[in-house]
Amino acid sequence: MRAAIAQINPTVGDLAGNARRIAESARVAHAQGAALVVAPELALTGYPPEDLLLRPAFMADCAAALAGLARDLADCEGLHLVVGHPHALDDAGDVRSKSIAVPRRFNAASVLGGGRVLATYCKRELPNYQVFDERRYFASGRDAGLGACVFEVQGRRVGLLICEDAWFDEPADRAVAAGAEVLCVLNASPFHLGKAGEREQRMAARAQAAGRPLLYAHLVGGQDEIVFDGASFALDASGAVAARAATFAEDLLIVDLDAAAAPRGRIEPVPGLEAQAWAALVTGVRDYLGKNGFPGAIVGLSGGIDSALVLAVAVDALGAARVRTVMMPSPYTADISWIDARDMADRLGVRHDEIAIAPMFDAFRAALAPRFAGLPEDTTEENLQARIRGTLLMALSNKTGAIVLTTGNKSEMATGYCTLYGDMAGGFAVIKDVAKTLVYRLARWRNLQPTPRADGSVGPVIPERIITRPPSAELKPGQIDQDSLPPYDVLDAILARYMEEDQGVEAIVAAGFERATVERVARLIRLNEYKRRQAPVGIRITHRAFGRDWRYPITSKFRA
Q: Per the omega criterion (within 30 degrees of 0), is the bond before 10 cis?
């Protein structure tokens, strides 16, 4: 039997466009001899559709789109298409209020063939951790008394599972007991660093436990703050990788199963960590702007490492013609910042403007002088500069329609080393989940990639001095980040333990970190939750990002 995995990049809510994408992949696969095509989890709607699922009109349109997709492929003789979609039963089992009963909704996969829906499977295990919130929207197929779904293709019996189902024994055991010779797993598994290896390991264990080969169909692309990395695969019954699709790209993976159901196909490599992170950021920017219709991006370029990294990502994602930079020097901006910002903009060939903020800064201070009389200068004056810059960038955004990409990293977001309505002003936070130490690693990795520059030469896109000079916000004379923060290697190590691993202060101190530093960092994280709640959405690349993963109260007296 020849099968195909349709690794597609859907857009949430674009039912017609997603159905068309699935149908096109299915037709190409059928033309190549595939009798089975597998599309990912909720491919018809995009993932996650969130509260769209609560709208009866949306569910009705999903059902119509599924039926239309089946009819559209009726002429593909012998083809079985498995596609993920939301599914509603007609009973009134899910009661949301005393007076209103609505149908039960399921995260489902249907088998289409001969112009109709042949069978439907409803997901049994509903994740409710990290970015997942499926119990808000879906009932379990187990609770509804719905069983396994096993269907036949060219004499081969195929059993369906959806994402979390394959992480537990019971759903796969039921499929095998119902006669499944091959397991088909539909997935929408959000990317974080190291996730690809984890997926393959867990699915290898599932294939071994079931004693069955396994086809794994995964989404690719960006949806708000999450990205999907693709890398769909096929495993043999021993858990060995027999085929793998491309990472961070749409792909159609052809898999041939021999008489013993052993799969084989091309095997694409898994990129290294920095390459994965870079591809995730590029995908996130490209799809956020593309799917939301922004004509381009604006970056406030400071001559520092963070804005340099964001600019490089933006150009890789959108092309130089759609990216614009603005340098806004203050009285404290070093000459080398001007020089390095111009140099990088020239290397990448983007439009670069300079707007001096000194006259505006002086005007603000003059207007506030009577109210500030007798008070010393402090961070108030520093923040004025950042807020002037934010106002200018947003004015350019309003005038042109281009979105402002903010440049704050995870270390800054954690500790509040950023200005509300200043450098936090913008529409999309590209490196919001990238710790400062990783910022440097990514900058050096990107500079090692051979890149044609605007002048026709080939070389690094980020000037070396931007990477090597001490980081500074340049909001007062001689300022560097380490005046206000611990060294970044120490800070990021504490953040990883406290924020990403949920370790308490005592555990981190016991690991060898200085108590005063740990307590200070923990205090800064707690104090700045109100800022993060007002920050733009940003790309998630770790297993614990500020956003859907992080739901701490602003008002709290807990201190451990």
A: no
Catalytic entry in 62, 76, 122, 123 = 123
Look up 163 and say whether it is catalytic.
Answer: yes
Integer Cα distance of 495 and 411 in angstroms: 8
Residue 257 has what pLDDT?
95
The 10 Å Cβ neighbour count of residue 400 is 13
Phi-psi region of 319 (alpha: psi -120 to 50; beta: other; left: phi over 0): left
The 10s digit of each residue's pLDDT in 253-280 is 999 999 888 999 999 999 999 999 999 9
Alpha-carbon distances of 126 from 5, 90, 163, rounded to whole Å: 23, 21, 9
DSSP 8-class letter at 535 = S
Q: What is the pLDDT of residue 483?
A: 67
- Catalytic residue, candidates 122, 149, 163, 184: 163
From the list 469, 207, 481, 170, the residue with the least C-alpha distance to 341 is 469
Write out pLDDT tens, residues 42-70: 999 999 999 999 999 999 999 999 999 99
CA distance 97 to 15: 29
364 Cα distance to chain centroid? 39
Q: How confident is the model at residue 17 (pLDDT cuts 50, 70, 90)?
A: very high
* Count of alpha carbons within 13 angstroms of residue 138, beta-carbon side: 23
Cβ atoms of 251 and 38 within 8 Å: the answer is: no
Q: Is 315 in contact with 285 (CB distance < 8 Å)?
A: no
- On whether the CB atoms of residues 318 and 285 are closer than 8 A, the answer is yes
Residue with tokens 């092309």: 319
Instruction: For residue 557, indicate whether it is catalytic.
Output: no
500 among known catalytic residues? no
Residue 156: the pLDDT is 95
Please state the rounded mean pLDDT for residues 225-245: 97
d(CA 440, CA 445): 9
